[in-house]
Amino acid sequence: MNKKIHFIVTVVASAALLAGCSQPEEAVPQNMNSQKEGSGKSTSEVQNITSSEISMAGQPEKGAVVYMTADINSDSLMEIYQALGAAPTGRVAVKLSTGEPGSNYLRTDLIGGLVQSLQAAIVECNTAYGGARSNTAMHYQVAKDHGYTAIADIDIMDEDGSMTLPVTGGTNLTENYVGEHFSDYDYYVILSHFKGHAMAGFGGAIKNISIGLASAEGKNHIHTAGKGGSMWSASQDPFLESMAEAGKSVADALNGNILYINVMNRLSVDCDCDTSPAEPDMHDIGILASYDPVALDQACVDLVYAAADGQSLVNRIESRNGIHTLEQAEKIGLGSRIYTLVNLDE
């Protein structure tokens, strides 16, 4: 593989987060702003530099640091984690999607070394739709079937209900409902499989800290932008905004004790909540990591747009107005869409 990654400095980009559930493709989001050609341009000022060009203070010239490697294996995952220079203390949680049977969930041969090195628990919450992970007993079984119980303790964090986090600066939410066990952990490693999604356009780091950490109750709260009722007929843009707002409540509560890693493999237009996802028609891209979830997701979206074979995923993102989640996330202070990309392969 050619490890030199090439970027378009100004990329037409869009982004959004996962809705934690699978929606039929024909179900069109309600009240979604229409997408026009060229809309949603990325604000990222991409600098493709090497790790040696980061200053001794660890600060790049512009924006948040996003590290990248094109290699997708357990050693590279460990390397990109180490590049962040994190030093977690106390109880560590690795938040990932356990994935529906048949999906493209992250396999244990990729993530096992990192999880075990951290002596971390793998944490998840139940889904808000009918499926193999909609109740705790079945969810633990899926985690076992997917090999996760062989590498770590598993905690379905809402098996005892929800706890509430305040949302500040939001347009739609004033509170966010996460799994009751959320406060049992001192540090969170957000390990996300980046991919498309039928409701939100794509799922990445922000999805994983919003819908992903929300209890089943909280998932409906986010989907409906705090209004309640059916999440299948909720308004689209308020839903996207609410994911950003819920994500900010998590980041605020953890006060820096969190980092984010996105794995860009098996880049289906469908998410890991889908038991029969579309087969990917684009190449794997790599692993990216950052302390800024907005910069990280923006970088992943930009890479999809820059890919010669990324049109299917681009179409999925644009059809759901996906960029709006990143717009809202930046607006309320969750992170920045401007980033410096540090290529660890050079």
SSE arrangement, N to C: EEHEHEHEEEEEEHHHEEHHHE
Largest sheet: 9 strands, mixed
- What class do helices, strands and sheet pairing give? alpha/beta
Write the CATH fold name: Rossmann fold
Number of separate helices: 9
Low-confidence stretches: 1-47, 49-60
Question: What is the number of E strands?
Answer: 13
CATH class: Alpha Beta
Organism: Enterocloster citroniae
Protein name: DUF362 domain-containing protein
Structure report:
With 346 residues, the chain is of the alpha/beta class. It has one domain (48-343): Rossmann fold (3-Layer(aba) Sandwich), CATH 3.40.50. The protein is built from nine helices and 13 strands. Strands 1-13-2-12-11-8-3-4-5 form a nine-stranded mixed sheet, with helices on both faces. It has a two-stranded antiparallel sheet with strand order 6-7. Helix 1 packs across helix 2 and helix 6 crosses helix 9. InterPro entries: DUF362. Pfam families: DUF362.
